[in-house]
Write a structure and sequence with these properties.
The structure is a single chain. This protein is mainly β and 169 residues long. The protein folds into two domains: 48 residues, no CATH class; 95 residues, Mutm (Fpg) Protein, Chain: A, domain 2. It has one helix and twelve strands, in the order αββββββββββββ. The strands form three sheets. The protein has a five-stranded antiparallel sheet, with no helix packed on it. It has a four-stranded mixed sheet with strand order 7-4-10-9, with no helix packed on it. Strands 1-2-3 form a three-stranded antiparallel sheet. The two termini are 57 Å apart.
Length: 169
């Protein structure tokens, strides 16, 4: 480091005083510039911000755990239509097409040894884009909520893989 660079750094350290304190509920930092004939006090104001109530080891950074069922498990699938239009729901393994009215729900059993990789196709007759929201409120229940999407690409099918994971295409 050059002599000029180190002297600038030393002058900055002398002029800038930073005091930081922390407690369980809040953290505050006070920044004040040291006074001198060349540098009058420009600002001396505390900055206070609340800390999260429960800081955990990976609260906001951890990846979201996907929906997972036991491989080969029989799963109850609940399809909930959150739109006001009729949506077509079809089991691709050969079951009949079901027309699901607006703001209604339907339940059926899927998976197990007789139906190892069930797929469910979803569409709206006027081809309005759909968005699927998956949830697993119970270990043996898959909830598929259907809403309109703002734009394409759209969600058209839900696939329960033989390893227990769920994909949306």
């Amino acid at each position: 480091m050059t002599k000029r660079g180190s002297s600038i750094r030393q002058r900055l350290r002398r002029r800038l005083t930073v005091v930081a304190t922390a407690s369980v509920a809040t953290a505050s930092v006070t920044i004040a510039l040291a006074t001198s004939s060349l540098n009058p006090v420009l600002a001396a104001a505390p900055l206070t911000m609340p800390l999260p109530a429960d800081i955990g080891p990976c609260k906001d950074v951890c990846p979201v755990k996907g929906i997972q069922f036991k491989p080969g498990q029989r799963v109850t699938v609940r399809v909930v239509n959150r739109t006001r239009r009729v949506i077509s729901v079809e089991n691709l393994a050969g079951a009949k097409l079901v027309m699901l009215s607006g703001l209604k729900a339907i339940e059926f059993a899927k998976g197990g040894s007789s139906d190892p990789n069930p797929s469910i196709a979803l569409w709206e007759n006027t081809e309005t884009p759909l968005r699927v929201k998956l949830s697993q409120p119970k270990p043996d229940l898959l909830v598929i909520e259907l809403r309109f999407a703002a734009q394409k690409p759209v969600d058209q099918s839900v696939y329960l893989r033989n390893d227990g994971k769920v994909d949306v295409f």
